[in-house]
Specification:
Two copies of one chain form a homodimer. In chain A, 69% of the residues lie in helices and 0% in strands. Chain A has helices at residues 9-23, 30-36, 51-73, 79-96, 98-105, 113-129, 137-159, 169-188. By secondary structure, chain A is mainly alpha-helical. In chain A, helix 3 (51-73) runs parallel beside helix 6 (113-129). Chain A has a single domain (51-188), classed as Tetracycline Repressor, domain 2 (Orthogonal Bundle). Chain A is elongated, with a radius of gyration of 19 Å. The longest helix of chain A is centred in the first third of the chain and has 23 residues, at 51-73. Chain A binds chain B through residues 105, 110-111, 116, 119-120, 138-139, 141-143, 145-146, 148-154, 156-157, 160-165, 167, 171-172, 175-176, 178-184, 186-187, and chain B through 105, 110-111, 116, 119-120, 138-139, 141-143, 145-146, 148-154, 156-157, 160-165, 167, 171-172, 175-176, 178-184, 186-187. Chain B binds a DNA duplex (30 and 30 nucleotides) through residues 1-7, 29-32, 39-43, 45-47, 50-51.
Amino acid sequence: MSPRIGLNQIMILEEAARAADEAGLESVTLAELAKRLQVKTPSLYNHIGGLPDLRKSLAIHGLEQLRIALLNGTVGKAGEEAVLAVGRSYVGFVRQRPGLYEATLSAPDPLDPDVSAASDEILTFMLRIMDGFGLTEEKALHAVRAFRSMVHGFASLELKNGFNMALNRDQSLELMLITYLRGLALSTA
Amino acid sequence: MSPRIGLNQIMILEEAARAADEAGLESVTLAELAKRLQVKTPSLYNHIGGLPDLRKSLAIHGLEQLRIALLNGTVGKAGEEAVLAVGRSYVGFVRQRPGLYEATLSAPDPLDPDVSAASDEILTFMLRIMDGFGLTEEKALHAVRAFRSMVHGFASLELKNGFNMALNRDQSLELMLITYLRGLALSTA
DNA sequence: TTATTATACTAATATAATTAGTTTTAAGTC
DNA sequence: GACTTAAAACTAATTATATTAGTATAATAA
């Protein structure tokens, strides 16, 4: 009757990410996904556990992609240059994959071990970037929190069109990070 | 038959905000709201235009409440002390009214004039707080963007349980803001 | 060739948003 | 106090979604 389309988890995940980037995470419904994949909705259940399950997978996939983007953005860089590069890469990732980034923040249960693990990898990456800044372990943890807050906050506000004014955004990001780093240098001096 | 309950827009809005705080914005459905208000779902349409309309009202209401909270948190303070107070009040508000804060970020159309206006009031408030820092107008705008990014990012990550480690959160916030302010002082010196 | 399994399907159920149209309460008017 | 009217609540129906159960078939393996 109907030739098999050859669906699998990866195809669904990638189509979901594309759909999220195009129209926002909210609009990613199983009905819409099935339409895009030329399949009836219930067929999706042969490959995923349901919508919450898909969202969790999307969150993990997004965190992995984000980590790779940060990694790629910092090859061959160290010190403050590396920190700036992470900031640029982070914001760049959110601009390129807005829906996928949104998914990383909307896991059904953010405390899920698998999601936490993917999140922790980014954290330890950032900690390594801040190695050699001469911070105590505790100060370094505070600094990583600050850094994540800054870049996530910036990217997230930009995503929601929170920056209305005609004022260069890249420059805002750059200035924020440089100003913070200057203050950080003072505290270790 | 059924005695009138005396519903109005405000009652619906406040119940929606409460529900959002209790169970997250996602769980605020008209069906759930109607149940909480002891009314049938279609009755809500006598007072609101529908779910998107309610969400927009919630966003504006949340922005107003946030502005009031910031205002109250800074009476009698000036300079860096005022900036720190805004940061504390901002994060405090998000902790107290997580769902309502979520709503401020999830308006159906963030570029809607009414929502933008409410958002702009917070912006100009922050600009006034930074008056007297000796910044050029452009630098001040960049600084406000940075400040919003920091506090929103911090609050938002905290909300999503993004801070897993056992490390004092209030201290992280305090350190972030102080470190940034130190860097800012350098650039004007 | 046959047996098995995975994949896609149809059918059915439950929840939600929304609209249309009806009844009834509450308020004011004569 | 009876009457009119507008608002507020209702029932009924439509559409969209997620999900489950059960069926048929295509691909694969024996």
